[in-house]
Amino acid sequence: MERSFKEEVEQLKLGAGATFHGEGILAVTKALLQSGVAYIGGYQGAPVSHLMDVLNDARGILDELGIHVETNASEAGAAAMLGASINYPLRGAVTFKSTV
Q: Given a cut of 60, is residue 69 above it in pLDDT?
Protein backbone atom coordinates (compact mmCIF):
# COMPACT_ATOMS: atom_id res chain seq x y z
CA MET A 1 0.00 0.00 0.00
CA GLU A 2 1.41 3.37 -1.01
CA ARG A 3 1.64 6.02 1.67
CA SER A 4 1.60 9.76 1.10
CA PHE A 5 4.21 11.94 2.76
CA LYS A 6 3.09 15.20 1.06
CA GLU A 7 2.84 17.19 4.31
CA GLU A 8 5.85 15.63 6.02
CA VAL A 9 8.29 16.32 3.15
CA GLU A 10 8.10 20.05 3.87
CA GLN A 11 10.45 19.33 6.79
CA LEU A 12 13.14 18.44 4.25
CA LYS A 13 13.51 22.20 3.64
CA LEU A 14 14.82 22.79 7.18
CA GLY A 15 18.23 24.41 7.15
CA ALA A 16 21.35 24.20 9.26
CA GLY A 17 20.67 24.46 12.98
CA ALA A 18 16.96 23.64 12.67
CA THR A 19 15.68 20.65 14.60
CA PHE A 20 14.21 17.89 12.46
CA HIS A 21 11.39 15.75 13.87
CA GLY A 22 10.01 12.97 11.73
CA GLU A 23 9.77 9.31 10.88
CA GLY A 24 12.92 7.31 10.28
CA ILE A 25 12.42 7.21 6.52
CA LEU A 26 12.21 11.02 6.43
CA ALA A 27 15.41 11.22 8.47
CA VAL A 28 17.14 8.95 5.95
CA THR A 29 15.94 11.20 3.12
CA LYS A 30 17.14 14.33 4.95
CA ALA A 31 20.54 12.69 5.51
CA LEU A 32 20.81 11.93 1.79
CA LEU A 33 20.06 15.56 0.94
CA GLN A 34 22.61 16.82 3.46
CA SER A 35 25.26 14.46 2.07
CA GLY A 36 25.16 16.28 -1.26
CA VAL A 37 23.70 13.66 -3.59
CA ALA A 38 23.11 14.63 -7.21
CA TYR A 39 20.82 11.69 -7.91
CA ILE A 40 18.78 9.08 -6.05
CA GLY A 41 17.25 5.98 -7.56
CA GLY A 42 15.52 2.91 -6.35
CA TYR A 43 13.32 -0.08 -6.87
CA GLN A 44 10.16 -0.47 -4.78
CA GLY A 45 10.00 -3.28 -2.27
CA ALA A 46 9.69 -3.81 1.44
CA PRO A 47 11.27 -2.59 3.65
CA VAL A 48 12.52 0.37 1.59
CA SER A 49 9.44 1.18 -0.48
CA HIS A 50 8.52 4.15 1.72
CA LEU A 51 11.80 5.84 0.77
CA MET A 52 10.67 5.93 -2.85
CA ASP A 53 7.25 7.23 -1.71
CA VAL A 54 8.97 10.07 0.18
CA LEU A 55 11.22 10.90 -2.78
CA ASN A 56 8.30 10.98 -5.20
CA ASP A 57 6.26 13.19 -2.85
CA ALA A 58 9.27 15.52 -2.52
CA ARG A 59 9.97 15.86 -6.26
CA GLY A 60 9.29 19.60 -6.21
CA ILE A 61 11.80 20.15 -3.42
CA LEU A 62 14.35 17.85 -5.06
CA ASP A 63 13.93 19.60 -8.41
CA GLU A 64 14.67 22.94 -6.71
CA LEU A 65 17.86 21.40 -5.31
CA GLY A 66 18.86 19.94 -8.69
CA ILE A 67 18.58 16.34 -7.47
CA HIS A 68 17.46 13.79 -10.06
CA VAL A 69 15.09 11.06 -8.81
CA GLU A 70 14.53 7.87 -10.78
CA THR A 71 12.14 5.02 -9.96
CA ASN A 72 13.84 1.99 -11.48
CA ALA A 73 12.24 -1.10 -13.01
CA SER A 74 14.53 -3.54 -11.19
CA GLU A 75 17.32 -3.84 -8.66
CA ALA A 76 19.80 -4.09 -11.53
CA GLY A 77 18.52 -0.83 -13.00
CA ALA A 78 18.96 0.91 -9.67
CA ALA A 79 22.49 -0.44 -9.26
CA ALA A 80 23.37 0.62 -12.81
CA MET A 81 22.64 4.24 -11.87
CA LEU A 82 25.68 4.16 -9.62
CA GLY A 83 27.80 4.00 -12.78
CA ALA A 84 27.35 7.77 -12.99
CA SER A 85 29.51 8.12 -9.88
CA ILE A 86 32.22 5.97 -11.44
CA ASN A 87 32.51 8.08 -14.57
CA TYR A 88 31.65 11.54 -13.21
CA PRO A 89 32.36 13.41 -9.97
CA LEU A 90 28.80 12.93 -8.68
CA ARG A 91 27.57 11.59 -5.38
CA GLY A 92 24.49 9.40 -5.66
CA ALA A 93 22.46 6.81 -3.81
CA VAL A 94 20.16 3.96 -4.71
CA THR A 95 17.89 1.75 -2.66
CA PHE A 96 16.34 -1.65 -3.22
CA LYS A 97 15.28 -4.65 -1.22
CA SER A 98 17.54 -7.63 -0.80
CA THR A 99 17.34 -10.08 -3.68
CA VAL A 100 17.97 -13.10 -1.45
A: yes
